[in-house]
Amino acid sequence: MLYILQGDEEFQRTNALKGLKQQLGEPSLVEINTTIMDGHKLRPEELLEACKAVPFLLPGRLVIVKGLLERVERGNQELQEVLLDYLPRLPATTWLILEEERAFGEAHPIIALARKLEQEGKAKVLTFEKLKGEKLNAWIRAKAEEKRVEITPQAIEELAAFVGNDLRVLDSELEKLAAYVNRSRPITREDVHAIVSYIREANVFAMVDALGRRNARKALRILRRLLNQGEHPLALLGMIVRQFRIMIMVKALLGKGYSAKQITQRLSLHPFVVEKAIRQAGNFSMEQLEAIYRRLLELDMEIKTGRTDASVALELLITALAV
Question: Per-residue pLDDT tens for 142-187?
């Protein structure tokens, strides 16, 4: 059986592989019957040899190859010909899993072959791409149900806004939230604010808003509150750098005539983040944003090399930016 697990959504791809292993049998035996190969380096004969091996005490064995389709796409004609010839004759006891970190289109010769083999029940092509919008909200809802906890629509929106579409992090935060409410009541927006570490970005948004309005007093008040809560100055600087980088990209795309929806898709950001960035970017010219971004990077280097105290430097920077 041929399986192709492709796409940039690593968490779902990894879970699909985990599910296949569970289907095969007892974990210790599956481990014995698993061969993992680097598709960027293997020789065709090595792959054939691994696929021909007989399983031990299980109905099948796994051969997991990473990066093989990418190598074929780069023009390895010999490998392509071997695969096109051999894959239709793959032994029934071999589960060949081709794992790829990005999705390949139907024009890829191995994908095209796999589609034909799917019709014969000899292959499955599973594509996992980053979730956005309602699909992301639906995933959060389903994952909460899986964890036997209810979650309100407002809490779902808040999680998606501040964590984004990193499913591994979302899964971890949902687990914390489920424990926090003891699975005895629905997770609310307030619970998200109380527990989710990513909610601190909301304060960074507010701080950047204050900078844009040249309100140094409010920006400093937010900064000092975050520092008093134990946030590391470098972590805060990193989030500020990220926000100004997003504003630069958003402003550049707006200048090219992109809509908010198109920017969201182009940058793979949550609509909430894009809307905030559009509004915030309006407070600065592109020249100001680029100058601030350069200064932030310089400050990062000064702090890391010990040339300046991190907390003091951040306060001085915010005071200067708000002028």
Answer: 999 999 999 999 999 888 877 778 788 889 889 989 999 999 999 9
- Does domain 199-321 correspond to CATH entry 1.20.272.10? yes
Name the architecture of domain 2-127: 3-Layer(aba) Sandwich (3.40)
Name all contacts of 38-45 with Cβ < 8 Å and 24+ positions apart. 38/65, 38/66, 38/67, 39/65, 39/66, 39/67, 39/68, 39/69, 39/70, 39/71, 39/98, 40/66, 40/67, 40/70, 40/71, 42/68, 44/78, 44/79, 44/82, 44/83
Question: Where does 133-195 sit in CATH, by number?
Answer: 1.10.8.60
* pLDDT exceeds 80 at position 271: no
| Contact present, 19 and 5 (Cβ < 8 Å) | no
Kindly write down the DSSP assignment for every residue of 215-249, as one continuous string: -HHHHHHHHHHHHHTT--HHHHHHHHHHHHHHHHH
Encode pLDDT of 38-75 as tens digits.
Answer: 998 899 999 999 999 999 999 999 999 999 999 999 88
User: In this structure, are residues 48 and 86 in contact, taking their beta carbons and an 8 Å threshold?
Assistant: yes
Alpha carbon distance 94, 15 (integer Å): 20
The whole-model pTM stands at: 0.61
Domain limits, the chain: 2-127, 133-195, 199-321
